[in-house]
């Protein structure tokens, strides 16, 4: 407390805090908290839906990759089997075909 000066003594301001004011503050804060909780609940439900959707998409992608890797494995097996054969003229035919294609493209683009 302050010391009195010149006959003036310090008197604190009376605080008016009634139970009604505290009750109103508590009700207001409870409503705000209830609003935040409902928002969080809604957001968590949306996050759960999104997680389930993305999980479904990833499982589908995994299945597609498994199918394509099987197809690619079979194709590579066939190519290796073809390469192991003594049919070296296939490479020669492929080389001649690629030269022919490039030549045709050159002629088409030059006279266009």
Write the layout of secondary structure elements.
Elements: H1 19-84, H2 89-110
Describe what you observe in this structure:
The protein has about 110 residues and is mainly α. Helices cover about 80% and strands about 0% of the residues. The termini are far apart. The mean pLDDT is about 85.
Mean pLDDT across every amino acid position = 84
Q: Could you say which overall geometry the principal axes of the C-alpha atoms support?
A: elongated
Strand segment count: 0
Percentage beta strand: under 5%
Q: What kind of sheet is the major sheet?
A: none
Runs with pLDDT <50, length 5+? none
Name the helix and strand elements from N-terminus to C-terminus, one letter apiece: HH
**Tally of DSSP helical segments:** 2
- The Rg value, from CA coordinates, equals 41 Å
What kind of assembly state do the chains in view correspond to? single chain
Helix and strand content put the structural class at: mainly alpha
Give the structure's gist in a few sentences.
The protein is mainly alpha-helical. The protein is 79% helix and 0% strand. The N and C termini lie far apart (103 Å).
